[in-house]
């Protein structure tokens, strides 16, 4: 199992960059583009989080439902 | 994993979430969620040791396998529902957290039915027959 703490900082970095892009796009007057960027960043991070949650649940199932 | 690493990770994630919160609430929540998953993933290995010890003790004591399995399942359900409820509470969804906890309690109650039945049966066998002579 890949216990990679870098994922957390990756997610935080994506969040900060998406926020910056959002601010720039809003200043340029492209509000709908800013919305799309936020949505796509959110989906990417959600996918990473879902993979991790799947990993965690699988492990918990192995430990507790072993019998 | 060392406790120092976990505490350091927790502190780093706390400050990252603080920075992210004023820019974007959702990302801050996701970062803390992923950090929670990581800490639990580190802890699962320790829990596994405790569970193995419990299983060995139960086998040595010749306990009924079904009861031990039920108890282990109940402990797992308690951990998972607590985890989910805390995440929902972090997101400000207190009512959803309450519902997750309610579901966890109900499922634990349902899983405990065989044990409760066994206890009641044992007590009924211990008691003198009522009116049976």
UniProtKB/TrEMBL annotation, chain A:
Transmembrane segments: 7-25, 37-57
InterPro entries found in the cross-reference section: Spore_III_AC, Spore_III_AC/AD
Keyword terms of this UniProt record: Membrane, Transmembrane, Transmembrane helix
Pfam families, sorted: SpoIIIAC (PF06686)
NCBIfam families recorded: spore_III_AC
Protein name (database record): Stage III sporulation protein AC
Native organism: Sporolactobacillus shoreicorticis
Gene name of the record: spoIIIAC
Automatic annotation (TrEMBL), chain B:
Alphabetical list of Pfam families matching this protein: SpoIIIAC
Organism: Sporolactobacillus laevolacticus DSM 442
Stated name of the protein: Stage III sporulation protein AD
Keyword Chloroplast: no
Transmembrane segments: 27-44, 65-86, 106-127
Keywords: Membrane, Transmembrane, Transmembrane helix
InterPro entries cross-referenced by the UniProt entry: Spore_III_AC/AD, Spore_III_AD
């Amino acid at each position: 199992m890949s216990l990679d703490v870098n994922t957390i900082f990756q997610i935080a970095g994506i969040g900060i960059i998406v926020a910056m892009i959002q601010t720039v796009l809003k200043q340029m007057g492209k509000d709908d583009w800013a919305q799309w960027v936020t949505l796509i960043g959110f989906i990417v991070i959600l996918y990473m989080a879902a993979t991790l949650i799947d990993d965690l649940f699988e492990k918990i199932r192995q430990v507790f439902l072993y019998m | 994993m060392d406790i120092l690493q976990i505490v350091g990770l927790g502190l780093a994630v706390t400050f990252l979430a603080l920075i992210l919160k004023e820019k974007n609430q959702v990302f801050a929540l996701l970062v803390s969620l992923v950090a929670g998953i990581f800490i639990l993933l580190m802890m699962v290995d320790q829990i596994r040791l405790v569970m193995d010890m419990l299983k060995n003790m139960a086998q040595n004591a010749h306990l009924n396998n079904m009861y031990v399995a039920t108890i282990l399942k109940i402990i797992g359900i308690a951990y998972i529902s607590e985890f989910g409820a805390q995440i929902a509470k972090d997101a400000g969804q207190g009512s959803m957290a309450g519902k997750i906890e309610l579901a966890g309690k109900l499922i634990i109650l349902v899983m405990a039915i065989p044990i409760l039945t066994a206890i009641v049966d044992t007590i009924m066998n211990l008691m003198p027959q009522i009116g049976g002579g």
